[in-house]
Design brief:
alpha/beta
């Protein structure tokens, strides 16, 4: 029986690479997932794993949440979906809920899409329409999706990749504060002020300052390696946007719905963006995303020019409401702060005991562990990071690497994780790190992963 399951696993992976295009192929481990529940997943061969990846921070409420499953089962006999040509109640109720919980003391409206990237793309479209301008400001090493405007505006893509897709040409990339790798002798707040000054100088040039429609940013940069900016940097962005009449777009795709210890990460910084984008956790496992923002900005897009056939999906809206209600009822944002403090403490103990752990950073349960050659040089080591996650996978823990150098371990478990699961996961991480330091994980594993570069 085990042999049959192993053969099936291999056959399915072989068929994946035969039938599915490489443009959406980004696989770390040779396992086919069969089941997921809470903080754990099981592969087709029956092996169990603690999940520190959660589909790139997409299951804050835990896998296959009982409340969401119950809500879907109660609704699915009535209808699966109906498109935008007629009304249905769940999408209207969800919009009302989002308007009430998303930060902003102004009148807000909602637009729906199916993915975080599509939501970000739509946010940029309405900013262009609202301002009548053409320039977009973004940040180096940012990630906002793969739709046209956001692929063009994602600093994590290499210039040649953007060129290959004939990217939107009117995008300017600013520097985002990486306080771990800031210049020597400069404090984090001072570094943020220096970078704000660079943005100001760019905007003071007439061709830019009068032409910028939007600045899109992540309140904590995710795929750049969990970069937590100084508070004054985000406050300064708001001031700059106000000064130049620029739409400030807060990308909460990764950070929203409690992940960082607040319902939305922007709450750590005390400002109100003009537009907030939501995805991943919004649908509680269904493909759902939304743009929530100032009424006058959201309504600047003419009818039938935004969204897609399944935007505001009937069952997706029901799942989203059930997921949000679960977060609020169980105060998962507070739980993320509490469990995040404990996990950060345990990870800092790893840092103190291992030469290749250079930094531990984050907020709540959005954490990055930066792997280096050694603490003296702090040279980034993507190879060591990949070897660590491979050995962790072999021992029952799923993580991935990301960051501007591909050397940061991404830690994003469900917010429902228990302390015992954290302890077990850290135990696995420590063994993996030790094995890599001792040379027990060979270079051959590097060719087995399609990893973040």
């Amino acid at each position: 029986m085990e042999q049959e399951k192993r053969i099936l696993n291999e056959e399915l992976i072989e068929k994946y690479w035969k039938y599915i295009g490489v443009g959406i192929s980004f696989k770390y481990f040779p396992i086919v997932i069969k089941k997921s529940k809470g903080c754990r997943i099981w592969d087709i061969e029956g092996r169990e794993y603690i999940d520190f990846l959660t589909s790139a921070a997409s299951f804050n409420i835990g896998h296959t949440n009982d409340e969401v499953v119950k809500a879907i089962k109660q609704a699915i006999d009535d209808m699966i979906d109906y498109d935008q040509y007629l009304y249905h109640e769940p999408s209207i109720r969800l919009a009302e809920m989002l308007v009430n919980i998303v930060p902003g003391s102004y009148e807000k409206k909602v637009l729906y899409e199916l993915s975080g990237g599509a939501a970000n793309d739509m946010a940029l479209k309405v900013a262009l329409a609202f301002t009548g301008r053409k320039y977009i400001g973004s940040f180096e090493d940012s990630y906002h999706g793969t739709h046209y405007l956001v692929l063009s505006s994602s600093g994590s893509f290499k210039p040649e990749t953007r060129y290959k897709y004939n990217a939107y040409p009117y995008v300017y990339f600013f520097k985002y504060p990486d306080t771990f790798r800031r210049p020597r002798g400069i404090e984090p707040e001072e570094y943020g002020e220096i970078l704000l000054g660079e943005i100001e100088r760019t905007l003071q040039v007439d061709a830019y300052g009068k032409g910028f429609a939007a600045i899109i940013f992540e309140p904590i940069q995710g795929d750049g390696g969990v970069l937590v900016p100084p508070k004054s940097f985000i406050v300064g962005l708001r001031k700059i946007a106000d000064e130049y009449g620029i739409v400030l777009i807060d990308d909460e795709i990764q950070t929203g719905f409690g992940r960082t210890g607040k319902m939305f990460a922007i709450e750590h910084f005390g400002i109100e963006p003009d537009v907030v984008t939501l995805g991943k956790n919004l649908g509680a496992g269904f493909p759902m995303s939304a743009v929530v923002g100032r009424k006058e900005i959201i309504d600047s897009g003419p009818p039938n020019t935004l969204g897609s056939n399944a935007s505001g999906h009937y069952l997706g809206s029901i799942a989203a409401m059930a997921g949000i209600e679960y977060i609020i009822k169980n105060r998962l944002h507070d739980r993320a702060e509490l469990m995040g403090e404990y996990l950060m403490k345990r990870l800092n103990e790893l840092k103190d005991g291992h030469e290749i752990v250079g930094d531990v950073r984050g907020k709540g349960l959005m954490i990055g562990v930066e792997i280096v050659d050694d603490k003296d040089s702090l040279k980034p080591s993507s190879k060591k990071a990949q070897k660590i996650i491979w050995r962790a996978y072999e021992n029952g823990l799923i993580m991935m690497t990301f960051g501007k150098y591909g050397n940061v371990l991404r830690i994003a478990p469900p917010l429902t994780i228990e302390r015992e699961e954290i302890d077990k996961a850290v135990e696995i991480m420590e063994k993996a790190i030790s094995d890599v330091e001792k040379g027990k994980v060979g270079d051959e594993v590097l060719s087995k992963m399609v990893a973040w570069q």
